[in-house]
User: What shape does this take?
Amino acid sequence: DIFWSTSNVAAYRNTLTGVDVSHNTELCTLDLGAANNLTYLNIDGCTNLRRLYLNECTALGGEINCSGFNQLQYIYTNRIAYKKDVKVNLSGCSNLQQAYFYVDSNLTELNLTGCNMLRTLIVTANRKLTSLDLSNLKNLETCSTNYNTALSSLNLSGCVKLCSLGFYRNTMLSSVYLTGCSNIEVITGNNCP
Assistant: This one.
């Protein structure tokens, strides 16, 4: 298994503008921490990728396509897409268990269709994501969508294991669908219209 990281290599932090590791079937962990000038990322065909870390890749935009990466278990992003819009496609990531999207200001689309093992989803401090469809993610236990200022629709119907939901300060939120979510114990949300 190959592990590739820029987090501890100071030389990469300011000079790395593109990464193409496409079709690397041995890559299991990709950590692009603090590559703040990274504008291009191609991970197509990295079918054994299990962990993806994108921390402070503030110039990254376009599409992050992990569609069909059935080994992916964990994705963590923090402060990506400050300068450009970004779409994240995780459809068919059937072993994805945890997904964290912190302060990704220009995240416009998040596709989680078929992420049937997803247990934890955190999407916070986003200003462009308008809807989030998480319906029928049967193993989802925790979902937090706090501080998403454009989010107007949140669909969690059929998330039968959901026990904790947070939607604090989603100022545009007008619809939350929870049909079939019989295990919810905690719902936190205020400053919604």
In short: The chain is about 5% helix and 35% strand. Residues 10-15 form the longest helix (6 residues).
